[in-house]
């Protein structure tokens, strides 16, 4: 099961990245120096979300600026240091790669924390966005539940989960409608989902959330790996917590195809960077 955080070739990276000129910047994009962290899913790597980062860079709505690798021991290393020691104000993107890309959400949440500490100590980062595909979204959500309210760490502004199995692999549409799922939550709750319910007090209420789910067709309500109902299962939970939550359903894209999908690109970029 492969998410977010990737292709390095053919993009402007680190020292070679030039700040966008005023003529290049899109008038409807809100540019800032807040980095967005992209995390792959289980078994994923540099290619998992690399195409997405390259497309955003080529569209000049954001710039891929840094690649961080986390070892099995939780040590963070960077491919290239930013030349001037800080991020540009062109919506910088950080690609995060886990060497142990199939570990559990608790270990990965600790590694996400290590990434944020690294960015804080080396680049004075105070605010971030999180984007995760599949297991990447699960681990980022676990981080938010455990450390999202920790005032000593960078604040998370926005969180995007793409095809993430929040209710594991339970498909509840045989017993409830989509409307019922979104309002009442899943009719069957996995062990993972129950843990989330019990730990929801740790989720900061001011994090805006975008849930992206895929279905192969109008009759096949999954992306071939994650049921649509699982990817959207936390909608009710987060709304009840007070978070602003949006959801998007993509038809015709399978699990890995979600991060190569033009509609997904548009939804993610508008949610993260476009002016309201």
Automatic annotation (TrEMBL):
| Protein's name according to its UniProt entry | Alpha/beta hydrolase
InterPro entries of this UniProt entry?
A: AB_hydrolase_fold, DUF915_hydro-like
- Output the superkingdom of the source species: Bacteria
**Gene3D superfamilies of this UniProt entry?**
alpha/beta hydrolase
Q: Which Pfam families match?
A: DUF915
